[in-house]
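We treat protein structure as text, and this decision shapes the records that our systems exchange. Because each token names a local backbone shape, the row as a whole describes the fold. An entry from our holdings is shown next, in its original layout:
>
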Amino acid sequence: MYIPTFDDVLAAHDRIKPHIHLTPVLTSRMMNELTGAELFFKCENLQKAGAFKARGASNAVFSLTDAQAAKGVATHSSGNHGTCLSYAAGRRGIPCTVVMPRTAPQAKKDAVKGYGGRVVECEPSTTSREAVFAEVVKETGAEFVHPYNDHRVIAGQATCSKELIEQVSGLDAVVAPIGGGGMVSGTCLTLSKLAPQVKIYAAEPEQADDAYRSFKAGHIIADDAPNTIADGLKVPLKELTWHFVRNHVTDILTASEDEIIEAMKLTWKRMKIVMEPSCAVPLATIIKNKHVFAGKRVGVIITGGNVDLDKLPWQ
């Protein structure tokens, strides 16, 4: 298992800069008053393809040799990684196949196709996802770009917190959502080098809390098919992301479905930021745990904004 280093992050940032946005950091006096903290929202919902995963996907795709790229890329994804891999593959002019749960938001399936990717559907479980994917790779010979358990992807995701640290000085903590752990791992990779004093908190739905339980138990606990409105956070940790989580994360905090929806509505209403349910989990946990963050300068990573507008969670 190759563990990426900060040199990999620097190389990734140089590699992907032509293909990503330097996303803004927004603040809100109302959010600060509500939480008792000073919050800085890193808006990856405004990233290319609508999610932070454009970073890792672009780094993986543009790291390939010409011979590897010729066979295309493939992955399994609940949505954003597949969309972003299709985006990156399109930029390089190579084919991309994405295995997606049949229950994934139609908006995300359409987005994959919109960037030229091919969607192959599976049942909404890790077991089905991996079985169908194995058939796709056998058929195409494509390069597998894992959504998070891939050193190229983690190095790419790490560029987000690198930008955040350059944009905002004096942070005390950073909070990011956790599913498989790609963004959190990237955050750990960057902050352990650039700002080791900054505490890293992962935020997770109560109904998909396998990372929380893994963190407390000291070993990976994987759920096969958790049920939460935060569809991007249903996947389990893997050995590479677990390395970063167990060595660098301060704590994992959880929020209920209602708390996630309220945080999402609040951000839409007060900050005019379109975010997915998965991306509302950090704010939900900050509101729920005000005593942890009171008086602190806190970076909050809004990981994506690809919402199915016909199926909003409060409708």
Notes: The domain at 6-52+150-302 is CATH 3.40.50.1100 (Rossmann fold). The chain has a mean pLDDT of 95.
